[in-house]
From TrEMBL:
Ranges where the record places region Disordered: 161-190
Descriptive protein name: tRNA-specific adenosine deaminase 2
Known function: Probably participates in deamination of adenosine-34 to inosine in many tRNAs.
Listed GO biological process terms: tRNA wobble adenosine to inosine editing
Organism, as annotated: Petromyzon marinus
GO CC annotation: cytoplasm; nucleus
Amino acid sequence: MNPGEPGSETDEWMQQAFNMAQTALARGEVPVGCLVVYAGHVIGRGRNQVNETKNATRHAELVALDEALEWCRAQGLAPAGVLQACSLYVTVEPCVMCAASLRLLRLPRVVCGCRNERFGGCGSVMSIHSAELPHTGSTFQCVSGVRSEEAVDMLKTFYKGQNPNAPNPKIKKGNQHPSDLASTPSLSAL
């Protein structure tokens, strides 16, 4: 059975990640869900909480990692040893920030749904997962494309609406695109 095939272990973990992403979507967040799995058990779950917390670092991966670290403390286990034996399942390719965190924590394997063409740190924009970067943890395997169409559909659903927490765009004077200048009242009167 191939990873991501219906009924596979990967598909089961990804389904749970998609459930987390659905919760994020229902709460007005970018629909990304994540699991940290250790020895066949989920030790961390996360969904995007950026809008809810007004904290730009509360990506699904970091929320799940925080929960996994708390689990390690509660079990009396050293996080470094546990995380080096974990797999992370996430609906969208980790961004550069999250990929760097995964690398520093030495997680060996990430399974993700769709690519992140704007901020991806596992091959789409940067290859944090595989680049030769001294003193920055270990490289990790990234398996992408697992249920990618489903992940893209969830993102499309989110971006069809408006994010009420997004900042208003601000264009500095002199930074306008030439096509915008024609509609500027002071210039159109010339």
